[in-house]
Amino acid sequence: RHEDYLFIGYLTFQFQNEDGAAPLDPSPEEAAVLRYIEEAEITDFEDDDLAVYVGAVQKDGSTDMLFYTRDVEEFFTRAAHLRDRFPRFNIACEASPDPNWEQFEDLP
């Protein structure tokens, strides 16, 4: 039920060249890891009905994976585990209220 998920959560994965500069797109290796995360790791956020994964948006130098969640603190806890497992992406996590799923409606 969508009315149970009142917050939108973002996991931002940042791409890096070997020199530390941020490229516009992920390398083939980074793209493969991101696909793996979407296919195998996102279930950790969906377990216990914590969150609903709504998709990913790529922008210059990063990919945002977007979720709607019912518990921001637990979402952050699970994001920390993902960040520890994939340090190459310097994963950032944030959440904000969006009870009407307005940001979802704005996705391309």
Question: Can you give a write-up of this model?
Answer:
The chain is an alpha+beta fold and 108 residues long. The chain is globular, with a radius of gyration of 14 Å. The chain contains four helices and four strands, in the order E-H-H-E-E-H-E-H.
Describe this protein with a few key phrases:
108 residues, single chain, alpha+beta
Concise synopsis of the structure shown:
The protein is of the alpha+beta class.
Largest sheet properties? 4 strands, antiparallel
In terms of DSSP E residues, the strand content is 25-35%
* Amount of helix: 25-40%
Uncertain residue segments: none
Architecture blueprint of SSEs:
Elements: E1 7-14, H1 28-41, H2 43-46, E2 51-59, E3 62-69, H3 72-85, E4 92-97, H4 102-105
Antiparallel strand pairs: 1-3, 1-4, 2-3
